[in-house]
Known about the structure:
It is a single chain. By secondary structure, the protein is an alpha+beta fold. The protein is built from five helices and nine strands. The protein starts with 9 loop residues before the first helix and ends with a strand.
Amino acid sequence: MKISWPKGMERWKAVLDRYRYALLVIAVGVLLLLLPTGESRPPAEEERADGEAFFQLEELEEKLARTLSGIHGAGETEVMLTLKSGSRQVLAQDTQSRGEGERSVSTVTLGRGSGSQEVVPLQTVAPQFRGALVVCAGGDDPGVRLQVIRAVSALTGLGSDCITVCQGDP
């Protein structure tokens, strides 16, 4: 079946006939570029892999408040934590000796293709807490206060002298 081209389109027909294979190769190339490679990660995973969002203080405070409100007599609870130091990553390092006591230390990186490199983390050090303030409806009861202090101490590693429990509005 022959296609009849309008008069103004005959020039385009000649170009298409002449560069048919080149256009086919370009179309296949574009199609291959659009296919997924399988290496991409969801944004949340990429964020966690970078180590920047390993520790979210607000999320921990909310989770701790929900947990503490489950203590008998505590009631509605709010928690505020302060940090002595945030979370950090310890990176792999390479040490090389160069004659007469000279040493060079460099951070180990891995090439991920297309010119990108990533550092090699050995471990992630958890943050250190400085103190905690818990405001709860049952904060005036010594039994509730003791249970709240023990729970916060167990979850954060803080001593009882760094945890304050106050009574909030009922």
